[in-house]
# Entry
Amino acid sequence: MSVTPAWEVQEHAGATSWFQVRLAFEDGARVDALAVVAAGQVSIEDVKAWPALSLADLTVLADWIEEPLCRACGMESYADEEPEAPDGGGEPGGARHARPAWPRGIEGRWLVAREYRAAQEGGLDPVLAVMCATGHSRRWSLRLIAQARDAGFLTPRHARR
# Structure
């Protein structure tokens, strides 16, 4: 993780500073954010992520960047005031990933097929269910579904003539 000052604007009452924040995860995922510090408060102005962040990841983004950003700004972190229990994603400050770990190979295809069938039986969008389970984009999830079909875990899309 890196925090670098982007620019600063001096005002009568103080200064407004912008910082570029970059998170790089072990699985190749990346999050870039533009944070603004003004009047002792921090806000996020822009976020770009590859692959896209889920809503759950977006809600913990502030936790990921709070301490290093406050150190770069010279502010106190709020982490000491409000201790939070980890929510199954590991210990606070530990290694985090933008998407959940997903097994490769035949086991991953079997899990894709299981998610797909469970969503179909529940009347939900099966592709969206695979996207949520794997953390991959729609295109990549469709590729995983096709691989599960080729492996024989799902029925063929069209009847062969």
The CA atoms of residues 74 and 106 lie 50 Å apart. The longest strand covers residues 15-24. The radius of gyration is 21 Å. The chain has four helices and four strands.
